[in-house]
Amino acid sequence: MASLFASEDRQRRIGYARVAVERGIDRYPEGLTYAIPSSLADLAPGDRVIVPLGRGDKPTAGYVIDISQSCDLDADSVKLIERRDEAAVKLPPGLLQLARWMSNYYCAPIGMTLTAMLPAAVKHNVGAVTRTFIDLGDPLPLEKKLPPKQRAVLETLAQMDAARRPIGIHALAERAGLKTTGPIKRLLELGLVEAIRKTSIEAAWARQAVDTTIPETLTDAQQRVIDAVSAVLDGGFSAHLLFGVTGSGKTEIYIRLIERILARGKTALMLVPEISLTPQTGGRLVGRFPRHHVAILHSGLTAAQRHQQWALVAEGNAPIVLGARSAVFAPIADGRLGLIIVDEEHDSSYKQDQTPRYHGRDVAIRRAQLAGCPILLGSATPSLESWHNATDRGIYHLHRLKERVTGMRLPTVRVLDFIEQRKARKERGVHLLGPALEEAIGRTLDSGGQVLLLLNRRGYANYIACPDQRCGWVMTCDHCDVTMVYHKSRQLPTGGFVQCHHCQAEQKLPAICPDCGRRITTFGLGTQRVEEELLRKFPQLEAERSMMRVDSDTMRSAADFHDVLGRFGAGEIRLLIGTQMIAKGLDYPLVRLVGVINADTAINLPDFRATERTFQLVNQVSGRSGRSAEPDGLGLVIVQTFNPMTPAIQFAAAHDYESFAHAEIAERRRCGLPPVTRMARIVVRDADHVKCVTAARALADGLRDLQEFREFRDFRGPAGKEIRVRGPAPCPISRLAGKHRQQVEILAPTAKAMQTLLTAARNQGLIHPGASMAVDVDPIALL
């Protein structure tokens, strides 16, 4: 009997498919082989299928990535594909190519890579509604003797314009003057009318603020950029870096280029780093292109909204796609993509922190290469990788906008020594606002202006400790090697709670030191503490309810943030205090003062990119000020710092990105660090410290023993031209969520050399991404 079934199976097999199952299987980077039954003769790459997996043949979803007529395996051992997932959206071939590149480049299982590309809402068909529509049959049954209500239905259909049919069953009942749909259903039973069922994706949306403003004129610099990029829109792939100071009109350039793409009948894809930038940018695109649908894709949407927008793109009904990092996977049909724009290309939010650990900007560049279209990267503070590619390597076209648009000037920046500011105060106590910043806030509010205050640290205090120095107790997380952060809360009897900002563990604020019994103290700074001080010093803000704290504690959803921005734009909110959420992309002409409470929050981190991030943050938030063309619209920025002579802060205050980039790249070159070289970071994790160290040592030794490593190691050219394996060593945060962490770093002269080594290590089983090992290619944070 078994042989008979086997014979039947062989007769039903018409080919073989490689399927990337949605599991973390990395032993088979190119997917698992399954047989195609005759019932799926039209199966094609990009289809989502259900296949039996493992000894238990558990039904598992996956994507077909290749089809062939033969395979090298024993045909009897190859399992059959069970069925096609009819509800799933088919992936365009271009996205399959992109997934295979990502899987190889970022050392991620192909199945997990494809899973990351497709929103869960799309896979689960969230928001799909099937409705019945009615049309006349053929021939028209008007001569039949029917009850009056049924005849009224037929006559209503016959009198309707053919373009308006088929019509929804409830809409038809209303048109025919019926109170129920019973007569229509009876006609369906008699076969006198046709039922057509249509499935659509439905979602509820809030009203979008629309901006229809069109600048009267463009600057000469803007026009030069538009002309230069327009000249290559039909010329295949090319990469362009738009370096423009804040307020120089980069968004208007994007819009003018999108106009040209639409005129060519193609689709434009625009990425922004965070949800916070979507409402303003989306409002401008909707206002400027009222006859075209703008699809918006980001994680802040409801599941039904994400599915609806994805379907619009897949069906070709949205020629403009706007979104955050994951929008780079929008299902734009092959041959339709005409231009990719990556705004604020330097932003760390483009980096995914889970497998696959891709960088949205770099994936966008690869997608543009595969699609054969230009890509435009824009920023006032470009990443050093992009700047290096444009200036030193010359593989990007560099376009500069050195001045703000007509009528606007860059703000004046004052860098103040926080220590000296504290000494200038006569009153005792904790003051996070120095006298100069406090005075400037009062002056700005009195004159009708608006204020932005930045502190990139949420909570109230980041140290909970015993006041007795002889005791030395500091409250740390039970699961991580970091201090706990105090958050005030009026709803709790203790007045607040403590939280780990890494594993999110929470507990009550202790009243006394567990070691010596003294009453504990909280110190340090956070946005809550600044908010408290502002309300104490400017009571009118509370009376008028004109201040808002913007951080991940107060902004629970995208709707919350959009509401705050709307109220800020309308002038209801006069002062915003927040984290980096308010540091970029916001354009409000009444913002006349920007204050940086402490510019040093990132400068001393054990990460070679700390100075770059500090420059970008200070420069970006400074650019929110002085964006009015009015005579009194000149902005002021006050930067408080304990290290006023730090080059990154001095360069940012002078709005001098090019000097900063030149000095920083020179320092990176001396140390053999990116962007001059390429880096991969492998983190080994285990609850047992000894096992963690042992595994990390085995990994480092194995990498050094690989033939590919020895070949590059033996190359004795200029500094940095050999592959280096560093470590193992404890991570700066050596324990997270109960697991010890050891890191091994790889530095290579080129991306090709890096990929050669990583591929060899993957093939030999040295690298196996999963719970015990994280592989981060081109890391942007080393904590």
Alpha-beta classification: alpha/beta
Q: How many structural domains can be distinguished in the coordinates? A: 6
According to DSSP, the number of beta strands is 30
CA(first)-CA(last) distance: 60 Å
- The level-1 CATH class of the largest domain: Alpha Beta
How much of the polypeptide forms β-strand, as a percent range?
A: 15-25%
CATH superfamily membership of the largest domain, which one?
A: P-loop containing nucleotide triphosphate hydrolases
Radius of gyration: 30 Å
Mean pLDDT: 86
* Strand order within the widest beta sheet: 11-12-10-13-14-9-15
Principal-axes geometry comes out as: globular
Estimate the helix proportion, in percent: 25-40%
Biggest sheet statistics: 7 strands, parallel
Q: Return the CATH architecture of the largest domain.
A: 3-Layer(aba) Sandwich
Unreliable stretches (pLDDT < 50, length at least 5) are 1-11, 202-206, 715-720
Number of helices: 24
CATH topology of the largest domain: Rossmann fold
What this model shows, in words?
This protein is α/β, with parallel strands linked by helices and 783 residues long. The chain folds into 6 domains: 92 residues, 3-Layer(aba) Sandwich (GIY-YIG endonuclease), CATH 3.40.1440; 74 residues, Arc Repressor Mutant, subunit A (Orthogonal Bundle), CATH 1.10.10; 182 residues, Rossmann fold (3-Layer(aba) Sandwich); 192 residues, P-loop containing nucleotide triphosphate hydrolases (Rossmann fold), CATH 3.40.50.300; 67 residues, no CATH class; 100 residues, Alpha-Beta Plaits (2-Layer Sandwich). It is 32% helix and 23% strand. Strand 11, helix 11 and strand 12 form a beta-alpha-beta unit. The N terminus is likely disordered.
